[in-house]
From TrEMBL:
Protein's name in the database: precorrin-2 dehydrogenase
EC number(s) per entry: 1.3.1.76
Organism annotation: Rubrobacter radiotolerans (Arthrobacter radiotolerans)
InterPro entries: Met8-like (IPR028161), NAD(P)-bd_dom_sf (IPR036291), Sirohaem_synthase_central (IPR028281), Sirohaem_synthase_N (IPR006367)
GO molecular function: ferrochelatase activity; precorrin-2 dehydrogenase activity
């Protein structure tokens, strides 16, 4: 594990730029993973939770990954594999292949994640905790994925499974309120806060 910041744009972080956090919709989008091992499988699992179409290209594909992927091409990567991709993942155990995938992605303008050299890619993945509609994502800016995992574990203890219903509940309350008369802004904010407080108190009580 590297001690220094090894994130895409790590240099920019030194200059004051931070990674831009975003929750992206991937339903129906073609996402291409080059490499079919443990790392590709971890990434694919989360892509599939987002209902992305996951295309895997690798001579050897992890059994679980093969069973869940939308398309599997059991062969080495070749240029052209990223055509039509919305996102790309370079996750082979070969530095040369990962570099070639990153290069094709840049040429096509497809955002790419590079597993062995994140600074060569465009985005990094956070460690995430999900409780129903509530998601918490943790990034260390690439400095230490293991630290990100440990922070996520602490958050898991803090936010137990009982939180899963909260987003749904406040969402329903909000819809009911929106269906009623429109109050002035201060009153609206007061009601919003009261709504969330009520749901939170039910959770702790
Ligand atoms: C969070 C998580 C999300 C995910 O991938 O889904 C994630 N890595 C996870 C696991 C993990 N990563 C590593 C091990 C082996 C640990 C060990 O050796 O013991 C394990 C396994 C484990 O911890 O269980 C090693 C490792 N990781 C990277 C490098 C390359 C480098 O740093 O240069 C190397 C060295 C490779 C080597 O040389 O072998 C790079 C990246 N890994 C990132 C994310 C991005 C930065 C996130 C941040 O901001 O911190 C970034 C930059 C790029 C990216 O891949 O997006 C997921 C935790 C899920 C969870 O449990 O919650
Ligand atoms: N980002 C992270 O979180 C993280 C964590 C651990 C390791 N890594 C890095 O990711 C890399 C992959 O790790 P892994 O554990 O999944 O490896 P692995 O050995 O389980 O899998 C490697 C995969 O690459 C495929 N491959 C090899 N040559 C190929 C080619 N020419 N075209 C297409 N696919 C090819 C293999 O068939 C295999 O499916 C490691 O080399 C390591 O540097 C990253």
């Amino acid at each position: 594990m590297r001690a220094e910041c090894s994130v895409p744009g790590g240099r920019e972080i030194e200059q004051g730029a931070v990674l831009y956090p975003v929750f992206m919709s991937l339903a129906g989008r073609r996402c291409v993973a080059v490499g079919g091992g443990k790392v590709a499988a971890r990434k694919a699992r989360r892509l599939l939770q987002a209902r992305a179409r996951v295309v895997v290209v690798a001579p050897e594909v992890d059994e679980e990954l093969a069973a869940m992927a939308t398309e599997v091409h059991r062969r080495p990567y070749r240029p052209g594999d990223l055509e039509g991709a919305f996102l790309a993942f370079a996750a082979t155990d070969s530095r040369e292949v990962n570099a070639a995938v990153a290069q094709e992605a840049k040429r096509l303008g497809v955002p790419v994640n590079v597993a062995d050299r994140p600074q060569e890619g465009d985005f990094a993945l956070p460690s995430t905790l999900r409780r129903g509609g509530l998601q918490v994502a943790v990034s260390t800016g690439g400095a230490s994925p293991v630290l990100a995992r440990e922070v996520r574990k602490r958050l898991e203890a803090l936010f137990g499974p009982e939180w899963a219903g909260l987003v749904e509940e406040v969402g329903r309350e909000r819809e009911a309120r929106l269906a009623g008369e429109a109050p002035e802004e201060t009153e609206r904010h007061r009601r919003l806060k009261a709504e969330v407080d009520l749901c939170l108190s039910r959770l702790s009580g």
